[in-house]
Specification:
Helix content: 25-40%
CATH superfamily: Hypothetical protein apc22750. Chain B
Protein name: UPF0145 protein ADK41_35455
CATH architecture: 2-Layer Sandwich
CATH topology: Translation Initiation Factor IF3
Organism: Streptomyces caelestis
Number of domains: 1
Family: Belongs to the UPF0145 family.
CATH class: Alpha Beta
Number of helices: 2
InterPro entries: UPF0145_dom_sf, UPF0145_YbjQ-like
Structural class: alpha+beta
Largest sheet: 4 strands, mixed
């Protein structure tokens, strides 16, 4: 499954809808399955760290680190979807992300939400 770089929307054709809202317009929650999460830790690239050091002196976006964080976020979301699918869900509501530094060697990203089964409202 592909995830949009910044919007977090799911790719067309995915069997698990991932949203940040508590409900999906036009649908009702038929069953709450429970919390699911996807976790990944990614080490920092030496080149990106050097570039980030230089950028911190002169200012500007840290494009290498931004790209790495987007990739890491997408990986965590893919794992979230896998966990929801394994439990029989077709949607994850109230999706959130938690980002922390893992012992100064990398970035930990956890995507979490509530796995549910939704159906079009009658």
């Amino acid at each position: 499954m592909l995830i949009d770089d910044y919007t977090g929307g799911t790719a067309q054709g995915s069997d698990v809808l991932v949203v940040t809202t508590n409900e999906v317009p036009g649908h009702e929650v038929k069953q709450v399955i429970g919390e699911v999460f996807g976790l990944t830790v990614r080490s920092r690239n030496l080149g990106s760290q050097l570039g980030a050091g230089l950028k911190s002196v002169i200012g500007g976006e840290l494009k290498g680190l931004t790209k790495t964080l987007v990739q890491t976020r997408n990986e965590a979301t893919e794992r979230l979807v896998e966990a929801a699918r394994a439990r029989g869900a077709n949607a994850v509501l109230a999706t959130r992300f938690d980002v922390t530094t893992a012992q100064d060697v990398g970035t930990e990203v956890c995507a979490y939400g509530t796995a549910v089964i939704i159906a079009p409202a009658a």
